[in-house]
Design goal:
Blueprint (H helix, E strand, L loop, with lengths): L1 E3 L2 E4 L4 E4 L3 E4 L2 E4 L3 E4 L5 E4 L3 E5 L2 E4 L3 E3 L3 E9 L2 E3 L3 E4 L9 E4 L2
Parallel strand pairs: 1-4, 2-5, 3-6, 4-7, 5-8, 6-9, 7-10, 8-11, 9-11, 10-12, 11-13, 11-14
Amino acid sequence: SIVNAGALTVASPGTLTFNGASVSNSGTISLNSGTFSIASAGSSLSQGGGSIGLNGGNLASATTISLSGGTLTGDGTITGGLNNSGGVVAPGTSADSTGIIRITGS
């Protein structure tokens, strides 16, 4: 199990893969390049606070991503399902910019 209450940044063009790990976020995940991947059915990504920023990077998950708090911002693609039960989805990188968050899943 991985608990992020600080900052996690993906800044390389490759893929950062979590296999068999649960990732819980209450800090900041910045996806500046490449792909952040939750690759197996035994893995998960949940956010109860904090933020996930699609800032040129993408997010992929074999399981449904749980957003129960915090924010999901930016411009990028989520491959997989997203369950937003209390978070804020705000395309764009700031209050005065626009963006598109594409979700290819349910």
